[in-house]
Design brief:
Layout: E1 2-9, H1 16-32, E2 37-39, H2 54-60, H3 67-79, E3 82-89, E4 96-102, E5 108-113, E6 134-138, E7 143-148, H4 157-165, E8 170-174, H5 181-194, E9 197-201, E10 215-217, E11 233-236, E12 242-249, H6 250-259
Parallel strand pairs: 1-2, 2-3, 7-8, 8-9
Antiparallel strand pairs: 1-12, 3-4, 4-5, 6-7, 9-10, 10-11
């Protein structure tokens, strides 16, 4: 069974209404391409616009029950396709960088806020999320265990590790930064060490500090009946704006997870106490 994920590598428009209309049109196109899930880049509601004035930033933030967010839930139900919509979420005392995943019935299945905010830079005006979450997503042909992390979360092995331990088979990763060899290598490593797929959706060239190159790593490094190793990168988009579709072979991934040695199989959690200690 193949899971089809559409990465909506889009340039933002000006204003919430235009963002909504362009996003909905992209979802409709993704459905016509056969997608099971459509994923937006990071903070689509305002095109990753991070004003440093608290009052101005608060004015850009929206509630999870806002018309903008609810419209994508309704569209998911109409299209019978899951949608991962990203937004600057209203929160006190600081907004959150969030994603909600609606299933094909328009039901909220996952609500995650970025834990590892870039507090050294523009994201110092944001609050940090509290935890990592995994949900079961019914795509009609199968049920997939899905988790989420956002951009800088990628640089911390704990993010993907926790999602793996909670059962994730696929991680959705909205993004807004230049995707160069080091960041791409980090995504590949998260997929490799946890035996799971990682789908990352970035903004295209033309968005400041972004360059496209949305990717999907399928998490399968080799096959028992084949010599050598596989390139786990099954999709690397160009710099250009577009909708890019990847198909993850879930049967192959699950068989690989059953027989191979990474993930949770040979861990020694009782020896890792320093990882949960402030130093």
């Amino acid at each position: 069974m193949n899971l089809k994920i559409a990465l909506l590598q889009l340039l933002p428009e000006s204003g919430l209404e235009k963002q909504s209309e362009k996003g909905k049109a992209a979802c409709i196109k993704a459905k016509s391409m056969g997608a099971d899930i459509a994923l937006f880049p990071e903070m689509w509601s305002n095109g990753y616009k991070l004003l440093q004035d608290n009052l101005e930033l608060a004015a850009l933030s929206i509630d999870k029950k806002s018309d903008f967010v609810r419209a994508f839930g309704e569209l998911a139900n109409e299209l019978q396709m899951a949608i991962g919509i990203t937004f600057l979420e209203k929160n006190e005392p600081k907004p959150l960088n969030s994603i909600i995943l609606f299933d094909r019935y328009g039901k909220e299945r996952l609500h995650y806020s970025k834990v590892h905010t870039c507090a050294f830079d523009l994201e110092k005006v944001l609050a940090s999320g509290d935890d990592f979450y995994v949900t079961e997503l019914d795509i009609g042909r199968d049920i997939i265990k899905i988790g989420a992390m956002i951009c800088f979360d990628r640089e911390f092995p704990e993010s993907a590790r926790i999602l793996m331990l909670k059962g994730a088979e696929v991680i959705l990763a909205p993004n807004a930064c230049p995707m160069e060899i080091n960041r791409l290598s980090a995504l590949c490593t998260r997929a490799y060490e946890n035996m799971l797929a990682v789908a990352t959706c970035n903004y295209p060239k033309g968005q400041p500090d972004c360059n496209g190159h949305s990717t999907v790593f399928d998490g399968v490094a080799w096959l028992r009946n084949e010599s050598g190793v596989r390139d786990m990168c099954i999709l690397k988009a160009p710099e250009d704006e577009g909708i890019y579709l990847a198909e993850i072979d879930m049967d192959m991934l699950r068989d690989y997870r059953e027989h191979e040695v990474m993930g949770n199989k040979y861990r020694y959690p009782n020896k890792y106490k320093v990882l949960t200690t402030d130093i």
